[in-house]
Amino acid sequence: MEEIDSMDKLDDALRWSVENKQPIIIDWMASWCRKCIYLKPRLEKIAGEYPGVRFYFVDVNKVPQTVGKRGNITKMPTIQLWKDGEWAAEVIGGHKAWLVMDEVREMIQKHK
């Protein structure tokens, strides 16, 4: 998973999605969020299952301006799928990790 730590990097990730006609996954997380910390390595594992899909994470405390510009993020973690530069789907990860991972896989399959 690659970190998005600026608006430019977020724009680059979205541009890549458009140019390559591939979805991207963005994990909106916070360093203080225990569920976020717990889910991140599991998302990294899922990334290996989908070689054409790029996975990113944004620490909303480091880059708060991204939240308002690219989605209404109200809960942590929020895992979004973007395709063709547009938000397509999301999973809010406040429940059991294995359920979240199943929902992320389903989201990718549906929009791939």
UniProtKB/TrEMBL annotation:
PROSITE patterns assigned: THIOREDOXIN_2
> Could you tell me the keywords of this UniProt record?
Disulfide bond, Electron transport, Redox-active center, Transport
Residue stretches making up the Thioredoxin domain: 1-112
Among the entry's GO cellular component annotations, what is one? chloroplast stroma
Would you say which domain of life the source belongs to?
Answer: Eukaryota
Q: Which parts of the chain span the membrane according to its record? A: none
Q: Which InterPro entries match?
A: Thioredoxin-like_sf, Thioredoxin_domain, WCRKC1/2
Taken from the record, one Pfam family name reads Thioredoxin
PANTHER family reported in the protein's UniProt record: THIOREDOXIN-LIKE 3-1, CHLOROPLASTIC, THIOREDOXIN-LIKE 3-2, CHLOROPLASTIC
Please identify the protein, giving its name as recorded: Thioredoxin domain-containing protein
Q: Which organism is it from?
A: Oryza brachyantha
Q: Top-down, what is the taxonomic lineage of the species of origin?
A: Eukaryota, Viridiplantae, Streptophyta, Embryophyta, Tracheophyta
